[in-house]
Amino acid sequence: MSKVVLHSGAVEMFVEEQGSGPALLLLNGLSQTTANWRTQARALSSRFRVVSYDARGQGRTPLGSRPVGLEEQLEDIAELLDALGIERAHLCGFSHGARVALAFAAAYPERVDRLVLTSIGTNDGPLRRLIVRSWREVLRQGGVEAMAWCTLPSILGTEFVRVYGDQVEAMVRATVQRNSESGLGALLEALAGYPDPRVEAGRVLAPTLLVTSDEDLLVPVDDARALAAAFPEVHHVLVCGCGHTIPIEMPEAWRRHVLAHLL
Fold this sequence. Notes:
By secondary structure, the protein is an alpha/beta fold. Helix content is about 45%, strand content about 20%. The protein has helices spanning about 40-45, 70-85, 95-105, 125-155, 160-165, 170-180, 180-190, 195-200, 220-230, 245-250, 250-260, and strands at about 1-10, 10-20, 25, 50-55, 90-95, 110-120, 210-215, 235-240. The longest helix is centred in the middle third of the chain and has 30 residues, at about 125-155. It is globular. The relative contact order is 0.16.
């Protein structure tokens, strides 16, 4: 696995790359970094040139002086692909990364082969809006560690907590080590201004896989189905017994669906 730093706009972007074959770009969730993809990236690298990166304000990529709105994040991806010599790629995003991947596929259809979106819906649910608002307030008043503890009950499924509950403190420590208050704050602020994803879904030309779960408080099943209905071509998979973090909670099942879509 190679680790490189690429200049994109006004920042140096941290990138991890492994494998060979068709390019597959992995996009992080809000408080995630390339580290959260390593198990999946290693497994997928036998068939793909897997690229993961820390977006501005995440992990080892600084926030920089430019805004981190959706349009700027799409420009960052285009510059990243250019720097790596990748003309077209499969895009695979989780949660916030899925929202960005969706917008990129709509804005740059000539650069996307196939699209995988995990744990994303219409963003309409009142409970989701309240949860995300609570994250912003907890971050503002208590910092990254407080927000990390606040997010876990909203994103982890019941079975995962039952089996791996003794690892929760380690998960919180990792979140604190890999994130900054300024970076998370900027991304949360940007997220609040994103447009309705159904508009962008209607413009996507790439064959799309949408993976959601039945225990996800952030993406209720009806919201996921409403987003799926907006795509010209989509395969919607509902994973049962799982929370928001499907690639972590059910890694083999998630990867099986992804490979079936990409190959």
